[in-house]
Design the sequence.
């Protein structure tokens, strides 16, 4: 039996290839995908051949292909491996660390049941939502503190929603694209500013009464980090959620970090505990269930985030856009469109 998978076969080249369906091992389930979400920052970096810390902490700068992405998805359990009692064939589930494939095998610890009224589209966003959630936890946000999110890609949008849910006030969004700023306001940001505007610092300091307490830097751009440090309050905390893969920028750490007592926090999603949560440091699994509870009780509404849905057969064209477009939308693949 064969399936189709999206694979990055060379820099800036995505193909839909045919390969064998995997067999679930002990403690695994085989899931037929219904929906998978593109995480644009990570997938763009891998598509163009940049080094990826998740697979190669000490890897050379040369790119290694093929690469497979698509780590946030949802579908239906198709088969059970030996020893699996937590799920049954036909169960609707969300998953972590998958690929854009018709079928995936996952350990049961990375599979989560969907409630009856929760859609595959929502479930395919849960794993990605744990990235900004972990960053916010590390900053130890307190109710009523001000917060800013630099960059309104999918992670930035989710960060805005989570900060509002967590009690940040005001919540500020920063992005160079007017449409992204407008979307941030619809998602719950109190203010949305252009970080390139000459009065950006003055605007932020005005609406926060002197400076921001918590910043979630999502762009991975050194200039954005430098800019957000300009608007921080004394003793502010900055989570580096975006992957700053390039070091070709300078920051005056003495004036912008050391002097005002700013805390910089590495917030890569793998920089978290694996098996046991503690205050400010939750496991992915515990964060997934937290997201599910927030969705279940109406605190979060992720369905509105999805801007485009495509068949996997359109993957080559979609990824060409991802490689070249500055403002890429939130995109999901609908695997039920494949026969």
Sequence:
């Amino acid at each position: 039996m064969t399936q189709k998978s999206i694979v990055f076969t060379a820099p800036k080249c995505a193909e839909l290839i045919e390969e064998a369906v995997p067999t679930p091992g002990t403690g695994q389930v085989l899931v037929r995908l219904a929906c998978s979400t593109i995480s644009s920052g990570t997938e763009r970096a891998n598509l163009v051949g940049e080094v990826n810390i998740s697979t190669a902490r000490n890897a050379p700068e040369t790119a290694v292909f093929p690469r497979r992405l698509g780590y946030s998805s949802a579908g239906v359990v198709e088969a059970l491996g030996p020893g699996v009692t937590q799920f049954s064939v036909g169960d609707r589930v969300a998953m972590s660390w998958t690929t854009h494939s018709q079928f995936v095998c996952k350990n049961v610890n990375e599979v989560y049941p969907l409630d009856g009224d929760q859609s595959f589209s929502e479930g395919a966003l849960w794993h990605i939502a744990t990235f900004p959630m972990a960053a916010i936890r590390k900053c130890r946000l307190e109710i009523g503190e001000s917060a800013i999110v630099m960059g309104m890609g999918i992670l930035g949008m989710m960060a805005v929603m989570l900060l509002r849910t967590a009690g940040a006030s005001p919540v500020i969004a920063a992005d160079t694209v007017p449409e992204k700023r407008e979307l941030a306001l619809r998602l719950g940001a109190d203010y949305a500013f252009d970080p390139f505007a000459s009065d950006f610092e003055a605007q932020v300091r005005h609406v926060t009464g002197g400076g921001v307490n918590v910043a979630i830097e999502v762009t991975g751009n050194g200039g954005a980090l430098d800019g957000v440090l300009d608007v921080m309050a004394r003793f502010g905390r900055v989570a580096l959620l975006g992957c700053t893969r390039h070091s070709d920028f300078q920051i005056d750490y003495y004036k912008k970090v050391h002097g005002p007592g700013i805390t910089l926090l590495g917030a890569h999603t793998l920089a978290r505990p694996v098996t046991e949560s503690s205050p400010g440091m939750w496991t992915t699994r515990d964060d997934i269930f937290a997201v599910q509870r927030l969705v279940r009780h109406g605190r979060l509404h992720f369905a509105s985030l999805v801007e485009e849905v495509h068949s996997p057969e359109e993957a080559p064209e979609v990824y060409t856009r991802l490689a070249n477009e500055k403002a890429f939308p939130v995109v999901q693949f609908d695997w039920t469109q494949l026969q």
User: Anything to note?
Assistant: Confidence is low (pLDDT under 50) at residues 55-61. The chain has nine helices and 15 strands. Residues 311 and 334 are 5 Å apart (CA to CA). The first strand starts at residue 2 and ends at 10.
